[in-house]
Amino acid sequence: MTSDFYCDEVLSGNTQVEKVYETENVLAYYHTKPFYEVHIVAIPKKHIPSLTTIEDQKLLLELMGVVQKVATKIEREHGACRVITNLGAYQDSKHLHWHIVFGEKVK
Fold first, then answer.
1. In this structure, are strands 19-22 and 26-30 parallel, antiparallel, or unpaired?
2. Partner of 95 for a Cys bridge, out of 6, 22, 32, 57, CB 3.0 to 4.6 A?
3. How far is CA 31 from CA 8, 17, 52, 55, 57, in A?
4. Residue 98: alpha-carbon gap to chain centroid
C-alpha cells in the first residue's frame, strides 16, 4: 500500500505546517519542501485518492472554495499564480491535493 503523506504526516500532526487557510474539512498550508517561490497545498481533511474518485460534491465545492480564496490572495500579492493538480501516474501522493504556486521553480 502506498503511504499517504497528507494523512500520515500533515493531518496527524507528525509534520508541523504553516497554515494559510482552514475550514472544517479543508486545510491549505505552505508546502514543506516547496518547488516554487510561493508553494501552497490545499487538501481535504479526509482521505480521497484523487479528483477523479471524489464522490462528495459538497466537499469538492468546499475544497475548490479554499483553492479560490488562496489563489485570489496569491494573485493579488504577486500578480499571477498557477493552480495545479495531478492525476494517475503524475500523482506522487495518492491523496487529492491542489498546488497553488507562484514564481520560478526552486527545485
1. antiparallel
2. 6
3. 15, 8, 23, 26, 25
4. 4
